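Justification of computing resources. Each target in the renewal requires a structure prediction run like the one illustrated here; the chain below, 377 residues long, is used simply to show the kind of job we budget for.
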Amino acid sequence: MSRTDEKTTVVVVGGGVAGLALGTFLLRSGIPCVVVEKHSREYVEQRQRAGSLDGRGVRMLREWGVGEAVEGHGGGPSDVVLPLIVDGERRAWRMDVDEDGAGAFIPQQVLVRNLIRIFLRDGGDLRFGAEDVVLERLDTDQPRVRYRDKAISCEFVAGADGFQGVSRTAVPDGFLTCHSHEFGYAWLSAMTGVPADPVAVMAVHSRGFAAQITRGPEASRVYLQCPVDDTVGDWPDDRVWDELDARFGSAVVRGPIATKQVVPLRGVVFSPMRYGRLCLLGDAAHLISPMSAEGMSLALHDAEVLARAIAGEVEKGDPSLLEGYSDACLAHVWERQASAVWMTDAMHDSGDASYRGEFRKQVARANLENLVEPKPA
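Resulting structure tokens:
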């Protein structure tokens, strides 16, 4: 062991929702950990991403004593009546609250900011600017994580550094199987300086799906269904707003657009989610259609399962939960992927028939009617 080596029980790679939630759960279980994040704190706290948690995720945070992470954020509960605009006609979703209770609309950067504050307040070791991370000796009982001139020996490594992170690439070739589904269309995603009112509006239209979702009191993200071969250059600002007007069936408040990107819709699952002493969680292990708004909820689920599994081995010498970590998470992931595919197909096929034909459009419309309140007689 080199003189620069440190020791801890768990090194968490990645300071997003998955990594911070895991670190918080571990600390509250009395298990030492270090969270390393390659970006600066300012970058992580301002990074604009999805903004919804399901009822299970909200309940989970409250059970761990960190319900404050989703309180007072200004996004509002997700059980309020929100509009769905179908060919210009406003309809209301069926808002049946599940057994876990109401979810919450909360921009990811707000949840991350709150989790950082809670983790540091609890005495957590969170290291920003941890560049050039390398994972070593994952198939031994003493793995190591290196970054810059630091090295940390540990018992477990949690890879929570996202789809493009280094954790999954540290697994030897041929060990992981990648399962993926391409939906055949993309979203033009535009970050705007216009608040969403209400916090989420979606539309089904013959020109394609559209949505405007809150990202805080002064910002929203606009989504427009488009072909996968479209580029940002095909979407000048005026076209974005004109298309949103057309698909919503009314004029919307316009404002500055900060960023735009074309995002092909897909689902991805890597299996298994564990290699040696490395466990993958969150986007490092799976991507789900953004139509489902399940990304943060899946990350929290993985974090809780892994925290309890590590606690079982560290505190009780029982490795059974850790051995079953991948199977337990994947069972939940595939359940949510099935729901996401159904929802994505229903919302997109029921609008623009040019992608999958009139037959699938009519089937999707029938499915869509099961999701909204009946029209007045």
